[in-house]
Amino acid sequence: MLQIGDEVVYFSAVFLLVVLATRSATAASLLTAFLYVFMVMFRFPPVPADQAGRVLRPRAPSGGVPVVAHRGGSHDAPENTLAAIREASRNGATGVELDLSFTADGVPVLMHDETVDRTTNGSGPVNKLQIGQLRRLDAAAHHRLKVKFSGEKVPTLQEAVEECIRHQLTIFFDVKGQPDKAASVLHEIYKKFPALYNSSVVSSLEPKVIYKMRQTDPNVVTALTHRPWRLSRFSDGTSRTLSTSGQLWTGVLDVLLDWAHHHILWKLCGVSAILVQKDFISLDYVQYWAERGVEVVGWTVNTAVEKDYYQNQLKIGYITDSLLEDCDPQY
């Protein structure tokens, strides 16, 4: 939980910044008071710790830390498919991370990209294809093991959930956008499969998605996904803009977003976990969040050396593209 000392520091910092910006103690006091009242009135409490623990710390077969297969384990099988879920279970994963998307006729399906081009033998935006059109595509068409998994279909959300429950896998539902639609669909899935309350997490890079999910169903375990510097840099570290002014501005926004994640957004949304890019996690970082009752999960951890570090030093769960061998990350 947030310590009282934390709140004093945070709101004192806001007060001082506003004073410096406006040179008005009155304005600073009013704005700080408004933010405090807003946080008290509109924040969501986290789900009970024992429920979050069952979801985020399931018993691993080997007795180690939880291991979540990214997109079902995109190196070991075609991503976001039933075959990937089965392979993840066979290879010892405790859970799978799956990406939620929607077809033109509103059917929730698994797909990471906005288009089907990269993973299937089709082309075009997912939201422009009917479910019947999507089902005719080969989801293994561009995978390194396409011969082995030839003909694998893009599954619906319900098919994926049923497969995960069958294999007793924890599910990390990754939601990219459309907060209202995603929250509504997931709420219906949770009502249909109540076991998900103790075996799944809804996560997103977008705080508004998590807030809407908690608003729709406060009993769902949720997590914020965070990659520092994501507004100014791509996942591979290259700058999103070449102009100096653009780099400076997006860098400032990144600093503010990072501060908000660590001091405001997690509490406002009442999350139980934060999913953080692996290069920014240390023992001190894990401890920081542990003091606030929030679990840290690292992504994407793809080498034996990194996995050993998470298993024996950090002692926290991680998300990986492969449970079998070292591989390059899938962005």
TrEMBL record:
Q: Where are the transmembrane segments?
A: 12-38
Q: Which residues form the GP-PDE domain?
A: 65-331
Give GO BP annotations, semicolon-separated: ethanolamine metabolic process; N-acylethanolamine metabolic process; phospholipid metabolic process
Q: Which GO terms label this protein's molecular function in UniProt?
A: glycerophosphodiester phosphodiesterase activity
The record, for InterPro entries, names: GP_PDE_dom, PLC-like_Pdiesterase_TIM-brl
Report the family membership.
Belongs to the glycerophosphoryl diester phosphodiesterase family.
Name of the protein in question: Glycerophosphodiester phosphodiesterase 1
Taxonomic source organism? Seriola lalandi dorsalis
Q: What is the lineage of its organism?
A: Eukaryota, Metazoa, Chordata, Craniata, Vertebrata
